[in-house]
Amino acid sequence: MLKMAVLLSGSGRTLDNFHERIQAGTLQAEIQVVISNIADALGLDKAKRYGYPSFHAVGNASVNEILAGYEVDCIALAGYLKLYNPPPHLKQRVLNIHPALIPSFSGAGFYGHHVHEAVKARGCKVSGCTVHFANEVYDEGPIVVQKCVALEDHDSPDDIADKVFAAECEAFPEAINLVDEKGFAYYWNRV
Predict the structure, then answer these.
(1) Domain 1-91, CATH among 3.40.50.1110, 1.10.443.10, 3.40.190.10, 3.40.50.170
(2) pTM above 0.90, yes or no
(3) Which end of the chain has the lower number of beta carbons within 10 A, N or C?
(4) Does this chain's domain 1-91 share its CATH topology with 97-191?
(5) Is the CATH number 3.40.50.170 carried by domain 97-191?
(6) Domain boundaries, the chain
(7) What confidence tens digit (pLDDT) does each residue in 86-120 have?
């Protein structure tokens, strides 16, 4: 069972998903701490309600200082909108979810609604999400899980976002469970 830190910047919808699945016994993880770079992020309020230690921290050094006080095997970036540089012992243990099928619509500037607007503008027939390991370059670490969703011509960027988020709710827990089962090195040694 992985001991996770969750880093977030927003509403905490992914934290909700993790919490619900942990409670149901379908996510093989324990959340040790939740950290946000946004002081008034709704996700921090949710973390407190769930009983998780929660903190506001700006910058890698501040985040890593907090993490040093917890036993953490894995870091889940759950809508964390900063490039994160972990401490050396967690270097290949940071998972991120991206709201597109990497390598499409990925890299610097492609996050959240910007991705869904670009997908709509390109006229894509499918989109989806990718759970991957994060490294020092946006969206370039080894891929763990991808989920595809079909799009309709009339789908708005909001419609695309809803479809992709539903896929994310399945993909991120699946990826965490796979990493727990196969180990971190399995994914880094594949590529």
Answers:
(1) 3.40.50.170
(2) yes
(3) C
(4) yes
(5) yes
(6) 1-91, 97-191
(7) 999 999 999 999 999 988 888 777 777 888 999 99
Coil/strand/helix, residue 181: helix
Of 27, 43, 5, nearest in space to 134 by CA = 5
| Lookup: tokens for 134 | 């994060």
Residue 137's Cβ-count burial label (10 Å; 0-12, 13-18, 19+) is exposed
DSSP structure class, residue 129: E
User: 30: which strand partners?
Assistant: 3
- Six token digits for residue 112: 């959240």
Rounded to 5 degrees, what are φ and ψ at 33?
A: -160, 150
Q: Are 144 and 175 in contact (CB under 8 A)?
A: yes
Residue positions annotated with a catalytic role: 98
- Terminal-to-terminal C-alpha distance of the chain: 25
